[in-house]
Design brief:
heterodimer; A: Alpha-Beta Plaits; Alpha-Beta Plaits; 7-stranded antiparallel β-sheet; B: alpha+beta; Uridine Diphospho-n-acetylenolpyruvylglucosamine Reductase, domain 3; 3 domains; 5-stranded antiparallel β-sheet; 15 helices; 18 strands; binds flavin-adenine dinucleotide; FAD-bd_PCMH_sub2 (chain A); oxidoreductase activity (chain A)
């Protein structure tokens, strides 16, 4: 990835920078246009900090009309645009381009409507994920998808990345919790998809937009469904001597018809790092630690806790603690929640991966990772959304040692290849961005990728919105539209027909 | 040059054969009607093609791993076969796919898993669990360009590339012929019970339902069935008083507890009955399949998707202008309407738009009416243009189900795409 090739900057656009900046100031008067190098520094990277690039200009619009005007202006002049929410993407989705306007949506920060009878919140895209829950929690409601970055990441960014979180096992990803959006197409047209109704009409463009990483349109409004907070939540903290046993326990819980509110696993290096950091009381002798949270009415939670405990014992758990208070439940989570910074303490740098695998492949993938760890001479700690097979290996490296970043990236790429090989995918929730862009052919054929790019052509035929992300190679829409017609004869005697 | 031949039905038995049929159709610009079991041919816009691509022989479950909550099947696999297999393992398609057969007067228990995706249908549990589109994990398909492609995978957490699988949901076979599907499956609830508040007016029912759904009782389905629709549910087992129905599913002790919570919450709303598991299942199956309007007639039936709590007001306004019967599923988010005579498409769609938006689909009507009226909700111009561009990218020559959702380009006998938005 360090050899990342981005689209060649357009010299004509670069030459006309001053004029473009001036025109942006006309569209967005006041403080909304940032063009000095010093001020633009704040926007030069997102959560994937290994990559930095100053944009052409930063524009922070405040109204949908301004967004529409900016996009139309850029479309007419073939100027590239990179949308950005809070800049927490871990895949470089919001990485600027030298010749592109960086369209920052953070000033769209208002909740527009709370509708309890229909259980929806309509918000501008710059509202943080947690901001939505905060707006409704006094009435006992919350917004279920809960990325760990929820204090900072924007709901618009969540839609663009189809973000997940611990609760997604039971309550679904962003895609399952968004009812409608308003968005602006690259040509400046404003369209609404869905609304407060449950099924959106026509083609499922809302489904296509969710997870499209800012390549199809700019989201200017989001309507989500909210849920009533469960009456109680309790957690079990279960240790196993081997990761196989931990994995089997997860399978057996689900096999028993139980879908926990959250089910997370950590491996030995992650357990140790977390315990050293927050003293959560984690058992240090086990190879796999499982946190299982059950939520709902008290009687249900108690009933299921007993079942899960029995399943854990049957799978050879060496410790099993059940939270007896809200404080204890939170303590169980404290280590898991602090796992990233905890690993940050034991290594100068770490690189967070995000593959998903069929759960039953966990032992094979962990063994593979251990072998790769030896091969590259780098340590790896694992936290794992165990219920849905989403792995977050954290590769430990030191960017000050020449070549280590490259090694970490190669190691990461090998892990993702392994995930694909066992029937999994390159990214579960962090997105492709620039980070996994060049690995896409590991999962997709050229035909698969071309068909995805054709979707892009329906939305943005000039490839102006967030180019250089997701697709390893950009092909012109005219070229993609060309047909190679074969099979004109009717030679298939083997196909039954009447 | 178009090769005119006898009407042909192609019945491929593999993805490769499906590919060669579509490549042939493309080379000869010969449009195909795609069918699974053809159980919903009476639904949507009628189309006229010389050739039919029948996917019902593309059948069989390819992978089922209960502990991984995943099932893959060829698109023509009968839904009934899949549901039986899942039930044997205490699992289900949580979106509770409905059967249009009673309403449309076709043979019950037909339908393929590919058809379920293409129609994106779901049943009463949609309120809590989502629709087919929320459970599809991956597909393989052949586009109208004569190319076999795949999207998604077999795992739940996956954001690798655009979600083309979701794009197939509700596309009625107009973008690609799906050859295999992978769905997320879920454990079936241990038991269920339904609480019925009797005799409520539509407005009071709306209040009761939003109270129940806003509680922590985890209601999985909520319907209001007024007179006369209620008399046809479960062969008349509910009598003739309006019934506001709240389904609670899960583990036994939890269901009991949540029922008590609901009873307490609604004790002042009206008389409360409790329907035990068997009756509960029958009641929800009948609501799902729109049995109240399965009267063997061709009187127009609409399926309206709108903001749940606005539905009763919309229906009241409609009644001022046209004779109709209604009942509500999804807390009101799904309104089933049977019109006495004229479909009143314009009136209805105008009212839905005024009531917070949504869309109305004409699911039953005479062939002539379905050909003359926009069966699916006409979209505003910018959105319709975007949808048309998407169709163009999947099926540039318009050979897959032309005219099924909107009139095919160049079809003179059919009305143009409705442009109410543009003129208002
Ligand atoms: C227990 C049971 C439950 C049922 N539940 C449901 C339900 O929830 N929802 C439901 O819709 N039906 C259900 N049915 C009935 C069945 O009749 C459905 O209508 C079925 O979804 C339609 O499948 P079909 O194969 O008959 O579709 P068809 O009527 O043949 O097709 C419907 C539409 O989908 C398109 N299509 C079909 N297959 C493909 C494909 N492989 N690729 C691309 N496009 C395709 C067609 O072109 C058409 O536009 C059920 C049946 C049983 C036995
Ligand atoms: C510490 C940490 C923990 C994290 N934990 C999780 C986790 O648990 N689960 C998870 O899923 N992710 C997680 N993430 C990743 C990240 O927070 C999410 O991807 C988040 O949704 C990004 O939101 P954002 O507002 O920061 O978007 P940005 O980073 O600003 O942008 C992300 C992408 O969205 C596009 N975009 C942003 N706003 C819009 C808009 N309005 N319209 C169109 N496109 C737009 C951008 O172009 C870019 O491609 C984590 C990140 C960090 C740093």
């Amino acid at each position: 990835m360090t050899g990342l090739v981005m689209p060649t900057p357009d010299t004509e656009t670069m030459r006309r920078r001053a004029e473009i900046v001036a025109d942006m100031r006309i569209i967005v008067p006041g403080e909304g246009v940032v063009d000095t190098v010093n001020e633009m520094r704040a926007f030069e990277s997102d959560g994937l900090t290994a990559y930095r690039q100053l944009p052409l200009v930063v524009v922070l619009p405040e109204t949908v009309l301004q967004v529409a005007k900016i996009l139309k202006y850029c479309d007419e002049r073939a100027i590239r645009v990179v949308p950005r929410g809070s800049g927490t993407s871990l895949s470089g989705g919001a990485l600027p381009l030298e010749d592109a306007v960086l369209l920052v949506m953070s000033r769209f920060n208002r909740i527009l409507e709370i509708d309890y009878p229909n259980r929806t919140v309509t918000a501008q895209p710059g509202v943080t994920n947690l901001g939505i829950t905060h707006a409704v929690e006094q009435e006992g409601f919350y917004y279920a998808p809960d990325p760990s970055s929820q204090i900072a990441c924007s709901i618009g960014g969540n839609v663009a990345e189809n973000s997940g979180g611990v609760h997604c096992l039971k309550y679904g990803l962003t895609a399952n919790n968004v009812l409608g959006i308003e968005m602006v197409l690259m040509n400046g047209e404003v369209v609404r998809l869905g609304g407060k109704h449950l099924d959106s009409e026509g083609y499922d463009l809302l489904g296509l937009m969710t997870g499209s990483e800012g390549l199809l349109g700019v989201v200017t409004e989001v309507t989500v469904r909210i849920l009533k907070k469960p009456e109680t939540a309790r957690a079990l903290l279960i240790g196993f001597p081997t990761s196989e046993q931990g994995g089997q326990c997860v399978a057996d819980i689900i096999g028993a018809g139980i879908i926990p509110g959250g089910m997370e696993m950590m491996d030995r290096p992650a357990i140790h790092a977390a315990e050293d950091f927050v003293n959560a009381g984690y058992p240090l002798e086990c190879e796999a630690l499982l946190i299982v949270e059950l939520d709902g009415p008290g009687v249900e939670v108690d009933h299921l806790i007993d079942k899960v405990e029995a399943i854990a014992l049957a799978n050879g758990s060496t410790t099993c603690r059940i939270s007896q208070s809200e404080d204890e439940r939170l303590a169980f989570w404290a280590g898991r929640k602090a796992a990233f910074p905890a690993v940050g303490r034991i290594s100068p740098d770490y690189y967070c991966m995000d593959g998903t695998i069929p759960r039953k492949e966990l032992p094979r993938v962990l063994a593979g990772m251990r072998a790769l760890s030896e091969k590259y001479g780098l340590r790896v700690a694992n936290v794992f959304h165990a219920g849905d097979g989403n792995l977050h290996p954290l590769i430990l490296y030191d960017a000050n040692i020449p070549g280590e970043l490259d090694k970490a990236e190669d190691f990461g790429a090998d892990i993702l290849r392994l995930c694909v090989k066992v029937g999994g995918v390159l990214t579960g929730e962090h997105g492709v961005g620039v980070e996994k862009r060049d690995l896409m052919p590991e999962m997709f054929t050229e035909i698969d990728l071309d068909q995805q790019m054709r979707v892009k052509c329906a939305f943005d035929p000039q490839h102006l919105l967030n180019p250089g992300k997701v697709f390893p190679q950009l092909r012109r829409c005219a070229e993609l539209g060309r047909m190679h017609i074969s099979g004109g004869k009717l030679p298939f005697p083997d196909i039954p027909r009447f | 040059m178009r090769v005119c031949m006898l009407m042909t039905t192609f019945t491929p038995t593999s993805a490769a054969e499906t590919l060669s049929v579509i490549q042939w159709a493309l080379a000869n610009e010969a449009p195909l009607e795609i069918i699974g079991h053809g159980s919903k041919r009476a639904l949507g816009r009628p189309i006229q093609t010389e050739h039919t691509l029948d996917l019902s022989k593309l059948s069989g479950v390819m992978l089922y791993e209960p502990e991984e909550l995943v099932l893959s099947a060829r698109a023509g696999t009968p839904l009934a076969e899949i549901e039986t297999l899942l039930a044997e393992h205490g699992q289900q398609l949580a979106f509770e796919p409905m059967d249009y057969a009673p309403l449309l007067g076709t043979q019950e228990g037909r339908g393929t898993i590919g058809g379920v995706l293409a129609a994106n249908l779901s049943g009463p549990r949609r309120l809590k669990a989502g629709a087919a589109r929320d459970h599809i994990l991956g597909i393989s398909a052949v586009s109208g360009r004569g190319e076999a492609f795949k999207s998604g995978g077999r795992v739940v957490k996956n954001v690798t590339g655009y979600d083309l699988s979701k794009a197939m949901a509700g596309s009625w076979g107009t973008l690609a012929a799906v050859t295999d599907v992978t769905f997320k499956v879920l454990p079936a609830a241990e038991t269920e019970t339904t609480l019925a508040v009797r005799g409520l007016l539509d407005e009071d029912a709306a209040t009761a339902m939003s109270l129940a759904l806003g509680s922590s009782a985890e209601v999985s389905s909520a319907a209001h069935v007024p007179y006369p629709a209620v008399t046809r549910i479960a062969d008349g087992a509910l009598g003739s008083d309006a019934a506001t129905l709240l389904r609670v599913e899960g583990f036994g002790p939890s269901v009991d507890y949540r029922l008590r919570t609901l009873t307490d919450l609604l004790k002042n709303a009206g008389t409360i009955d409790t329907l035990a598991a068997d009756l509960s299942r029958t009641v929800w199956r009948d609501i799902s399949d729109c049995v109240p309007f399965a009267d063997g007639s061709e009187r127009p039936v609409w399926r309206v998707s709108m903001a749940p709590n606005e539905a009763h007001r919309m229906v009241m306004a409609l009644r001022m202008q046209a004779a109709c019967d209604a009942f509500y599923d999804w807390q009101g988010g799904l309104v089933w309407l049977r019109m006495e005579a004229d479909p009143e498409a314009e009136v209805l769609r105008h009212l839905v738009k005024k009531s917070g938006g949504g869309h109305a689909t004409l699911v039953r009507a005479s062939h002539a009416l379905r050909a003359a009226l926009p069966v699916f909700e006409p979209q505003p111009p910018a959105l319709a243009a975007l949808a048309a561009r998407l169709k163009q990218q999947f099926d540039p020559k318009g050979i897959l189900n032309p005219g099924r959702m909107v009139p095919a380009a160049g079809s003179a006998s059919l009305p143009p795409v409705h442009t109410e938005e543009a003129t208002s």
